Amino acid sequence: MKLIVIGLILANVIMSIKGFKDVVFFNKYKFNISSVQKGEKIRMFSSGFLHADYIHLGFNMYVLYMFSNVVLSYFSPLLYLGIYALSLFIGNYLSLLLNKSNLYYSAVGASGAVTGIVYSSIVLFPDMPLSIFPLPISFPAYIFGIGYLFYSMYGMKNQSGNVGHSAHIGGAIAGYLATIVLIPSVLITQTLPVVLLAIPIVVLVLMQKKNFSR
């Protein structure tokens, strides 16, 4: 495991534990619509290093650990970090766009950034097998990716659970597009999976056209 991944995991663990113990610190750096609109842009990034609890933190770091080597097999640590940071920002930016009228909307977690790394790995290796616990079967990664995006869109629309679905979607889009821009040859070598992964993204844009134009 590259040092960049270890560094990100440590940063998340340190800041999250600080947030668990210090409510003032947590509230100062979490993502909050009202605060961001007032100019506290640091929350667009700082919120990605805070988590709601140890389970939330542990799950995100486990997924990051599992998928990072796939991305690092193609990209330098600097480009990997760029995809991570871009996915974090776009995830929160989409949340800002879709919830801008809800001034009390708040969120924390590295999910947007982690989802960006996951989708980058899916674009690079769309046929790698992924399974969903507790199902005893696996799916090609691109099938999982398409299904997860549609699930997130459903969750976002219905506000199901205490989950930042919009951040997941934004992070996935960022990881997907960044990988294609950096390695455009995937459009030739992985044409069908890459095109199919774009379907839920196009559907989302069409569904949210009014939100984006306001």
From TrEMBL:
Membrane topology: Multi-pass membrane protein
Main localization (coarse): membrane
Residue ranges occupied by any Peptidase S54 rhomboid domain in the UniProt entry: 39-183
Domain of life of the native organism: Bacteria
Keywords for this protein: Hydrolase, Membrane, Protease, Transmembrane, Transmembrane helix
TM annotation in the entry: 71-91, 103-125, 131-151, 163-182, 188-207
GO BP of this protein: proteolysis
Localization of this protein: Membrane
Molecular functions per Gene Ontology: serine-type endopeptidase activity
GO CC, any one term: membrane
Family per record: Belongs to the peptidase S54 family.
Name used for this protein in its record: Rhomboid family intramembrane serine protease
